[in-house]
Amino acid sequence: MSQAVAHGHDDHSHLPAGWKRWLFTTNHKDIGTLYLSFALIMFFIGGAMAMIIRLELLEPGVQYVDPTFFNSMTTMHALVMIFGVVMPGTVGFANWLIPMMIGSPDMALPRMNNWSFWILPFAFTLLLGSLFLPGGGPAGGWTMYPPLMLQTGFALPFVIFAVHFLGASSIMGSINIIATIFNMRAPGMTFMRLPLFVWTWLITSFLLIATIPVLAGAVTMLLTDKYFGTSFFNAAGGGDPVLFQHVFWFFGHPEVYILILPSFGIVSQILPTFSRKPLFGYESMVYATASIAFLSFFVWAHHMFTVGMPLAGELFFMYATMSIAVPTGVKVFNWVATMWRGSMTFETPMLWAISFVVLFTIGGFSGLMLGITPADFQYHDTYFVVAHFHYVLVTGAVFGMIGGVYYWLPKWTGHMYDETLGKIHFWVSVISVNLLFFPQHFLGLAGMPRRIPDYAVQFTEWNQISSIGGFVFGASQLIFLYLIIRCIRGGAKATDQVWEGAHGLEWTLPSPPPYHSFTTPPQVTDAVAHS
Amino acid sequence: MSAPHGGYYLPDPSHWPILGSIGLFSIFLGSATWLNGASAGGLIIGFGIAVFLFMLFGWFGTVIRESVTGTYNHQVDVSFRWGMFWFIVSEVMFFGGFFGALFYSRILSVQWLGGAGDGFATHQFLWPDFVPDWPMTVMPDPSKWTVYREVIPAIGVPLLNTIILVSSSFTVTFGHWALKKGNRRAQSWWLFVTLALGFTFVGIQATEYVHAYHELGLTLHSGIYGTTFFMLTGFHGLHVTIGATMLTVIWLRSLSGHFTPENHFGFEAVAWYWHFVDVVWLFLFTFVYWL
Fold it and tell me: What integer pLDDT is reported at residue A6 of this predicted model?
């Protein structure tokens, strides 16, 4: 380990400037910035699609868009938000933070790091470009179930290859993260001293490596069924359309933990700082995260309770799903216990983190309701499901990421952001997001199906409230964009520690940190790691 | 910033990754265009492959140059090892998906179509003449899917191929032992034998495919049996081809004396990959051909 001394001179006169710097960079901070900026742009593209969806649902009947285009908006909104926002965004955090948190000069495999980012714009060109093909974009839902998905026109191979391409990026990204965490830790940075954000990304990387290839296999089977005469999903040749759902959700369920675990990690960094107390139950947090990840491989068919599975399968997947509530409960308990009797202050990152704990837990509870097989027969494919996963993904994964941006933005840019504007952003967002998604629970329980541009008139009021919430939530993100740009361009100088209660190696570096994080590896002790 | 000796090597900015993206993008774009029936697809694919190959030569060339000039310390070597290890794990999971499809169709969907479990009504109302055999003797819907005359028996050419591939796993290990003893001549010979066995395997598989298509009537269209048979063996064959190509590269590098008893990660990475395709074959032999 002690050899991990990159030559210390910070002379970058030989580095390319301008666009070449970003295209060819092998630096973890540059690549992290690229990932985060890409995710932010995609957030607005995916958000615009959501606005179209909410506009159409403002009143019953088909008013603004063609139903097929509506379906391709729900499909694309999901693909963009999952593969274009949350996954690249969290990888951006990983790139920026993991080397700084474990005391290394950079990521383990810097050239591959560049490649895993620079795949994304190309893959999204394929994906978003398919919207402009004759016949429109994919409209079969992001889950791509056959036989419906096989009715897609010209767009089908574009979507499938985009998924392959994005998968290659994710696999390279996670290999890099694992190699970095295994091999680049500073002396004394033992596994049980790793910041929780590093732990959650380590476990997320395992999930990615284990499941993304299975997704690649599933979409390959779609491709060969459509163009090469195979019969994976065709009963007339002995296959089964349900097989796709099994293969897809073997990826798909661990995928939801891929989306949420990094945000768990971010929140676990923020809460101790503003409670001025160490994280409660650090070790149990690590074990709980690992248990969630392990169990996620045995619950996939709870997405398919109504498809017609043998009873034993329904029961197995119900009980397995319930069991995930235990480690998740451990985590929520630990977050609350971290704040218990702490000297809490409520700066913007803390507000996002607290709202994460509350609102994610609501999404968790509705998930438990959906996990009960007989109850799911009622909820399946209704707006209740939409409400559930938006609580875990928007007020969960995305809120965690936004909180993380506020928390580390002063470290990254060297400037403090505008606290008043940040608080306005938070309060407008948190009120409007509940206006947006909470009524969808009622709509679902009352029987409104998801993925539909038209609805029965009795659903009108809640849909209108939801749409208004959606427009406000969408617009309030422009505050976020403005705040970030302003913070990059200037502002009050940030100190090295930034936050009074912040602990960990990244806060020992200057703000903004030097090009190569730790050219001399620091000696890590228990005091540095946990204090 | 790069540290040729001593510290962890941090490479300068590189233009290879973006070229790789352009190459892959063109391959995907061309393939999608071609699948949609536009003849320009082939040209775009060709361009993509050319760019991608150029990237591979350039990127690996850079890495090899850095390696033989002693740029990499032990810690960099460990990073490469973890990288290759987890890449192989992801490949294992890729095959896992297709094996899952094989087991699901063979054990569940074909049986349900034949009336097993809750499938009684399915059988009666959809295709009452369907018999759930494996290999299938009749297709659920014979008007859409053709049945084959026979399938390839395990004891025969597949067994021969098993012997070839397992032997090649031994010969690559003999090459590794020779390398560790510093015997470059033996090392290169064993590598040559390994890659010859690898390409022989691919050649035999290709002949078997021709035989299956033309004489047995077993094709990709032969229902779920033909589907799983060709997709599993096909992806495996592709991986053997890639592996044998990598063996060729390290054979040439071995002739040029790139590997030392202390520093030969490139050799080991290819050897790991080769063992991986061998193990996948053993599963294929057991579950696709034999049982």
Answer: 41
- What are A348-389's pLDDT values in tens digits? 999 999 999 999 999 999 999 999 999 999 999 999 999 999
Lowest mean pLDDT, pick from A1-15, A180-194, A269-283, B94-108: A1-15
Residues of chain B found within 8 Å of residue A115, distances taken between Cβ atoms:
16-18, 20-21
Supply the mean pLDDT for chain A.
94
What pLDDT is stored for residue A79 in this prediction?
A: 98
Q: What does the pLDDT read at residue B147? A: 84
Give the catalytic positions of A in this structure: 77, 106, 142, 169-170, 253, 255, 257, 268, 302-303, 328, 331, 450
CB contact under 8 A, A232 and B105: yes
Average pLDDT over residues B17-24: 98
Average pLDDT over residues A187-208: 96
Which among B24, B127, B221 is the nearest to A165, CB-wise?
B24
Backbone angle region of B89, left / alpha / beta, with phi > 0 → left and psi within -120 to 50 → alpha = alpha
Mean pLDDT over residues A316-331, rounded?
Answer: 96
pLDDT of residue A14: 65
Query: What percent of chain B has pLDDT above 90?
Result: 87
Query: CB–CB of A26 and B90 under 8 A?
Result: no
Q: Do B94 and A229 touch (CB under 8 A)?
A: no
The minimum CA-CA distance between B185 and chain A, rounded to whole Å, is 33
A202 Cβ contact partners less than 8 Å away, ≥ 6 residues apart? A177, A178, A181, A194
pTM: predicted TM-score of the whole model, two decimal places:
0.95
Name the architecture of domain A25-508.
Up-down Bundle (1.20)
Asked if A214 and A131 touch (Cβ cutoff 8 Å), the reply is: no
**Residue A236 contacts B, CB cutoff 8 Å:** yes
Q: How far apart are CA A254 and CA B122, in angstroms?
A: 32
Interface test with B, best of A133, A202, A205, A230 (most B CBs within 10 A): A230
Distances (CA, A) of B84 to A260, A338, A491: 27, 39, 44
Bridge partners of A288, per DSSP, are none
Of B215, B216, B214, B223, the closest CA to residue B146 belongs to B223
* Residues pairing with A415 in the sheet: A493
CA distance A49 to A296: 30
- Report the alpha-carbon distance of residue A188 to residue A103 in Å, rounded: 10
Distances (CA, A) of B120 to A7, A305, A437, B117, B124: 72, 20, 43, 7, 6
Spatial separation of the C-alpha atoms in residues A428 and B18, rounded to whole Å: 40
Distance from C-alpha of B74 to C-alpha of B181, rounded to nearest angstrom: 20
Task: Quote the tokens at residue A525.
Answer: 């002790």
DSSP A59-107: SSS--SS-HHHHHHHHHHHHHIIIIIIIHHHHHHHHHHHHHHHHT-SS-
What percent of the residues of chain A are helix, what percent strand, and what percent coil, each to the nearest 5? 70, 0, 25
Residue B247 corresponds to which amino acid?
L
Put simply, the chain A residues between 403 and 442 with a CB less than 8 A from any chain B CB are: none
Note whether B29 contacts A126, CB cutoff 8 Å: yes
Domains annotated on chain B, with CATH = 12-71 (1.10.287.70), 74-290 (1.20.120.80)
Where residue B1 falls among pLDDT bands split at 50, 70, 90?
very low
Q: Are B165 and B264 in contact (CB under 8 A)?
A: no
B51-82 pLDDT, tens digit each: 999 999 999 999 999 999 989 999 999 999 99
The 10s digit of each residue's pLDDT in A438-453 is 999 999 999 999 999 9
Please, which pLDDT band fits residue A16 given cuts at 50, 70 and 90? confident
Contact (CB<8Å) B73/A3 = yes
With bands split at pLDDT 50, 70 and 90, how would you rate the model's confidence at A15? confident
